[in-house]
Each structure stands twice: as structure tokens, then as C-alpha cells.
From TrEMBL:
The keyword Transmembrane helix applies. This is Silicon transporter. The keyword Transmembrane helix applies. Keywords: Membrane, Transmembrane, Transmembrane helix. GO terms for biological process: silicic acid import across plasma membrane. InterPro entries: Silicon_transpt. It comes from the Eukaryota. It holds the Pfam family Silic_transp.
Amino acid sequence: MDIDSPAYGKENSLKLDIPLKQPKDYFSKDNILTYIKYILSSALTLTYVIYILWGIFDGQAVLPVHPVVNFIIFCFCMTLVAYLEGLQVAILAVEKYSPDNMQDTHPRAYKLIKSVREGNNVERFLVGRQFFTIFVMTLIAQVTSFPEISNLGINPIVWFIFVQTGLPAALVVTTIGSLQPQLLAARDPWKFLDLYGCNAVLNLCYGMELTGICTHFAWMLVIILRHTLFITEEKPRTHNPEMSPAYYALEGLKFTVSFVVLMTYCSYIMWGIWTGQAILPVPFIVVFIIYCCCICFLSYLEGSQVAILVAEEYDLKKYEQSHPRAYALMVRAKTEKNVRRYLIGRQFLVIFVVFLINQCTIFPEISQLGIDDAAWFIFIQLGLPTALNVLCFAQLPAQLLGNQDPMMYMNRYGPRATMEFCIYAEMTGIAHFSWVVSSFSKMTWFRISRECAASPIKDPVIYKSNSSVMSTDNTHV
């Protein structure tokens, strides 16, 4: 049941057909285990919600603003994450369908889809969404990190593992802010798109994509990797826009700005880590190792997702001898429902790793170097350095490479272990509370229409959120 629930990944395809009811043994071993997972996940998540609210209203957050402001920021960010995640599922579910029949019943959804279907606006939204998802999570980390809060007499090792690594915020964001809106949007995408605020979030993503800050440095890094560590005969897909001198000038400016911004932020992060300013209570060399390992692991999570989902359509027999590790990985992935298990486990691990990275890159006591307080707050303390470094070093390059030659990517050491880690993370049931809270939402404010349940939309390619960056302005790569 839990594996079939989330609309995440190409494999699950939003099959909402209602089967004939069969007698169920509610007290079978498997069902009892599932109930235990729901109870433990719900208890742990609600405990973490209480912990976060306690820390915020006790004034323990590292973001230097009033507790009420921190609470407002937390609520706003959770809402924005929900919009970003739900829009991803809903837009990709209905983008190929004409919205004309929805003009009267879902006017806001009609307007949104009309905009999305113009040009490459789907890709523009998804690239902008990629940045805002990471940025909002780093901002949440600023208001949910409490380095001076009491550990309530709990064993320091237990406290470190279950609290100081960022697990509280990671689990709350995964279950309430990420998986829940995906589940709701999968059940009734038109209703989700018709919610107030969706068009504003869409335009916000368009604006970020236009700047080029969140993609151009990643393309530069990919070019280097394609000529050094990832040499492949596969050619990147390109398009050929009319390249005027003004076009080259604008693109050159974007590359320059992106490079300068990323190198500045990277230097800031290294400075903070090596001077022992991180809030993670371990020696600075350990912080540096954790940071590097998290960046590498996150790149595997991102690249493997794209590679696995793209390679699902391949004839694997052709690669059994030339790419043995990739072949074994895909055989394992296609066993039972392992692709879905992988995607669900990956969803939690990506968010958790991002929050752990934030514990390594939040420096509340670091010198401002004489920079104006307002500028420091906006460009540093809100989490931009971490967000852009994660996006441009760990996410986009891995996605681009995994899309270009998925079998070569998966044939390297690392992707198989990453997939197994995700599968076993899903098996723990740690994110099962998302089904509880989504069921509550469907019974209250998000009631599913009969028409949607009776006429399910088939096969939205959800993983396009990652692969879309490969089809947007690929002239550079």
C-alpha cells in the first residue's frame, strides 16, 4: 500500500483505478508491521514538530530575528515547499492535456496550464523550482537549528544522531512539506493547480531561471567533467537558437556572474568550516569530511535517479558485458517495485543530506568583514551560499551526466550502494506519516473529485524535473 501511494517517478504513473475489493487479513504479519511503521513514523514526526516549535519560540534559532518572525518564516517556507513539490507533480501530469474543458470549473488551473504550454516554460519552471526547493530548505535549516538548546538530559550521542544532524527538520519537511503535496497533486492535479498561489509560485520560478545564476556554473563544471572524468561517446542534446552578438554577450555575462558568485560562496563556506565556525559540534576536520561526503552522496542520489529512470526503457542485455555494474543495478531496480522504493527512500535521504550539509555550513558567529548588516542578512544568513553550492556542485552536474550516458554513470562504483541505501531507507517506514497527513487533508480541505478518481491521468514523467535541465539551453554543453 505504502509503495503504491506516492506519485513519484515514471514507474508509478498515477494509476488511480479502483480495484475490486478483496477480503483483507488486517492482522497478518505484513499488515501489523505496516501499522507499526505508521505509528512510529507519526510519533517521531509529531515529536520533532514539537521540538521545532519549542526551539523557535524559545528564541534558540540561529537566524537572528524575533521568534515570531522565525515562526512566520518557517510556515512560509513549508508552504512554499508544498507548492513547489505539488506543482511539479501536477504540471507534469496534465501538461499534455488541453485545459479548455477546465476553463469554467478550474479557472486558475486553466490560466496556469496555458502559460506552461507556451514554448519551453515547463523546463523553465522546473529549473527555477530546483533552485527554490534547495534554497527554501536551507532557509528552514536556519530557523530550525538550535545549537544552544537543552538536550533534556538525553545521551549526547543519541542527541547528536537524532537532533543535531538536522533530522528533525528533514523528517518534518519530507512528510508534511514534500510527500504530502505530491500525494494530493497526484490524486487530483487540476484541483491542486487551481489553488490560490500556484500562479505566483510559477512566475517566481520563471524569474529565477531567467537569471542563469543557478545553471550556468553547473554547465561549466559539466564541460570540464566531460573532457576529464566522464569521457563518453554519447553527445549532449542541443538546440540551435539564433545566436546574435547580443545573445553571446548576455550568456557571457551570465557565465561570469555565476562563476564569481559560486566561487565567492564556496570560499566563504571553506573559510567558515576551517575556522571552526560550524554549528555541528565536532572538530572542523570532521565537519569538512562530512561536508565533502554529503556533497558526493547527494550527487549520487541525483545522478542515479536520472540514470535509472532513463535506462528503464533500454534493452539491458546489450550492456551485460560492457557495463556489468550498471546491468546488475538495473536488474536489481526492476525487481518487484524497487524503483518506487528507491525513489521514496531517495526523497527522504536527499532532504536529510541537505539539512546535514546545512549543519556544516551555518556559521552564526563568523565575522561579517565589515559588510552592511542588511546585505549580510540577505546574501549570507538566509542560506544562499549553501543553496547555490549544493545546486551547482552536487545536483545539476550529476543530473546532466546521468542523463547523457546513464549506463556509463551507473557502471561506476557508488550508484549501486546508493540505490540499496535508498531501498532500505524506505523499508524503515520513516516517512509513513506523509500518508497519514495526506489522508487527513483529503478528508478536510482537499476533497478529491469523483471525475478525477474515475478517469486517472496516465504516466506523468515526474523525473523530468531533473532531466529538464538537460534540455534547457543545452547550447553550452
